[in-house]
Amino acid sequence: MTSVYKKILKREPKYTNYTKGFKDCLDYIFINNKLNVISILEEIPISHFKKYDGFPNKDNPSDHIPLMAEIKFK
Question: Which pLDDT belongs to residue 72?
């Protein structure tokens, strides 16, 4: 199994969970060798995180950052 973000970006997203007490990558999308990654949802710019102590807040309804990938069978 391979992470789609690591496959495209060569690294995991900086944050997928961003709260006052915890900021890190907790969420992943894994694929096997029978699938190809077409595209991924762009990461939220780091400058956006600097506006807030944590999520959720008035602009972000969840403490988890969305991940998304377009994949297809080989």
Answer: 97
The structure tokens listed for 71 are 């994949």
pLDDT for position 65:
94
Per 3-state DSSP, what percentage of the chain is helix, strand, and coil (rounded to 5)? 15, 25, 60
Give the H/E segment covering residue 28: none
Residues of the chain under the 50 pLDDT cut: none
CA atoms within 13 A on the CB side of 50: 3
Distances (CA, A) of 19 to 8, 24, 28, 43: 26, 9, 18, 17
Measured between alpha carbons, how far is 41 from 57 in angstroms, rounded to an integer? 21
